[in-house]
């Protein structure tokens, strides 16, 4: 695989998914964990404006203040869906398979039409910008699943970066900014935990040639000691040969 990122240094991009008041306790723990690993202010938070329709940010002023403080400290704020739940009927076997197998019903932007995608992207971006007082430049769809309408909406609204399982790109231009399979963890079953641990353990070797690697952490990863220990191991290993980076540093688009 080739990587178009400019410059010579190798980087690791760490992102924390599902940033919502629903997971505040785990997020505080993850933030401390990353600070102890040397990533204070050098990672991304993927923020959900109204998680599952039950956790609107505006109803939680303490959490909003914490987000603003993290942003002031340098943490990158990225829009991550709007409700983080898939409520759209899916036509076609491939899309139904993605919606049912690749996520537990949370592929929100897989089946939305263009107008609804634009509406949620605009509202979510405006909400987070109002909380942190800074521009939100990036979007990551829940479960990394995008429909064609969502991709078109991202282009229309001029987001500077987005990512899926395999790459980071600029929706404005379509330019690929980095190619690398994301290292992430699934905790819904013992089999998923085992497969996550296997991929994590080999990732240091498999991804070594790439200039950019990506590590994604979910709040429920920290419900399992085995996953926490492995995340600590692989992160510290990457940090011996890579500098922590931010998504916005990849792009000049």
Tag the structure with descriptive keywords:
5-stranded parallel beta sheet; globular; TIM Barrel; alpha/beta
Quick description:
By secondary structure, the chain is of the alpha/beta class. The longest helix is centred in the middle third of the chain and has 19 residues.
What does this entry look like structurally?
The protein has 253 residues and is of the alpha/beta class. It has a single domain (11-250), classed as Glycoside hydrolase/deacetylase (TIM Barrel, Alpha-Beta Barrel), CATH 3.20.20.370. It contains seven helices and eleven strands. It has helices spanning 24-36, 61-72, 93-101, 114-132, 148-157, 190-206, 225-239; strands spanning 11-19, 44-47, 50-51, 55-56, 76-79, 138-139, 161-163, 167-169, 176-179, 212-217, 243-245. Strands 1, 2, 5, 10 and 11 form a five-stranded parallel sheet that branches. β6, α5 (148-157) and β7 (161-163) form a beta-alpha-beta unit. The two termini are 22 Å apart.
